[in-house]
Amino acid sequence: MRVLKRASIKIWRKKGISILLLVIMLALFVTSLSCKMIQDSVDKSAESAKTDVRATVEIGYNEQEMMSSGTSEVALTTELVEKLKNNKYVKEVHEEIESTVNGDYKPVGGSNQSPMNGQIMGSGTENVNMDSLCGTVVSLANIEDSNFATGDNKLVKGVYPFDSNVKNAVIVSDEFVKQNDLKIGDKIQVLGISAKNKTDLEIVGVFKTYVKQSEMDDFFPAVAERNKYYTMPKTAIEVQISGNEKENAELKSIKTTLKNSGDIQAFIASVKNDKSINSKYLRFSSDLEKYKTLTSSIQKIADVARVLSIIVIILATGILGLLMILSLKNRKYEIGVLLSLGERKAAVILQMVLEMVLVAIVAFGIAFSVSGACASGLSKAMINQSNVESSTEKKMQQGILFADDVSKEKVDPIEEISIKPIGKDILIETGILNGFVVVISTLLPTIWILRKNPKKIMLREE
Question: How far apart are CA 215 and CA 224, in angstroms?
Fold first, then answer.
């Protein structure tokens, strides 16, 4: 109790040095707590993101590899779909097809303004004018990952093709219906570019699109969203090659749904290792890649926080130790008197440690109350810097554009890390670590002084 009283009095009398120690410790504790909170929040965010990984893999063309090899090989076929259905990791397989078609219908925006009017294009039967292209047949097995899921398209009348019992059911845009004076229940005839026979499609629904008209749509109206006919994959394949069975249906992509999201890597490896599948020109896309990109980005923030924490601890230890040496140098006479009066060295050491610990307790209390806000501010600064560096790197890579890069799913830059409240584990871990720093920076200089006898200490002999 006597030692504690002396320590308290000394802190009060030496306000200048006490405030300086408080500021240094506060900086140490706030930085340590903030960095630890950022690391913990990143770990929890990464774990949460992993649970959101969907068990789907989309297989498309590796355009970069095809360009470098100079090939136009059709790798995505119905035969590949059948093989994938037998894969032990696969639950469902859906073909994705987009095929421009000819017909006696006027596409929306398909006036004589089209720069391609009058040009000739080959088909399964004869050459046709670009004027006869009336739209694009698109497969729609479900609304997942489609414009209907994102809200870009909205079904306003009727039902989706997969909810209809009508053969070759199709849904078209409200603008296309108005342009060609059609309604639900009407049949339209279209001819696929590689087909010999026309296919009858029956309108079972009408959708409204909010997709903005692009320059490509003006140049080639048949591919505009307003001129797309959504139907089941089987019907889309029939439209593409009807009457031309020798022609192999070419798919845009194949979407596989796996039994377990944890099997994504194993599934991709099984396809690549299957010698009956030419996977050289295939590209595999999944949420796993997006997850890796995202977690890689936020993990960089956690790594920076970890390094910053280590640097601050080292600097704080050095500064606190230096301040303790300077303080003890001015208190040698006081220490010598205490030892001469019979005070034990252990009691003197305890007093010095208590002085630092009492200041540390106050500093830790303040740090606890402000570390949440500091962690949020620090994480935002790190994110901004990370995004600036990423943006600079992308600009440096401009001019070297590969088709495969364009096809990859875009990952938006990180805007914020959700900082979690300080947990008990963080408080204990940070408290023990910072307490160790405070004690070590006090003990070493004090023991160095107390190794001498009281007379030498009082005489300030070096």
Answer: 10
* Cβ atoms 228, 108 nearer than 8 A: no
Query: What is the pTM assigned to this prediction?
Result: 0.58
Taking the CA of residue 159 as centre, how many other CA atoms within 13 Å lie in the half-sphere pointing to its CB? Answer: 10
Q: Tell me the residue ranges of DSSP E strands in 149-231.
A: 153-158, 169-173, 187-192, 199-209, 228-231
360-376 pLDDT, tens digit each: 899 888 988 888 888 88
- Bridge partners (DSSP) listed for residue 230: 138, 171
Helices (H), 243-344: 264-273, 287-330, 332-340
Q: Which pair of structure tokens corresponds to residue 426? A: 């963080």
Q: Which of 96, 79, 93 is nearest to 230 (CA)?
A: 96
CA–CA distance, 119 with 420 (Å, rounded to integer):
61
- For the segment 229-261, what is each residue's pLDDT rounded down to a tens digit? 999 999 999 998 888 766 678 888 999 999 888
List, in order, residues 6 or more apart from 321 with CB less than 8 Å away.
440, 441, 444, 445
Tell me the C-alpha to C-alpha distance, in Å, between residue 404 and each of 63, 184, 277: 5, 40, 20
Q: How many CA atoms lie within 13 A of 266 on its CB side?
A: 11
* Contact yes or no for 148/154 (Cβ under 8 A): yes
DSSP element (H, E) containing 450: helix 424-450
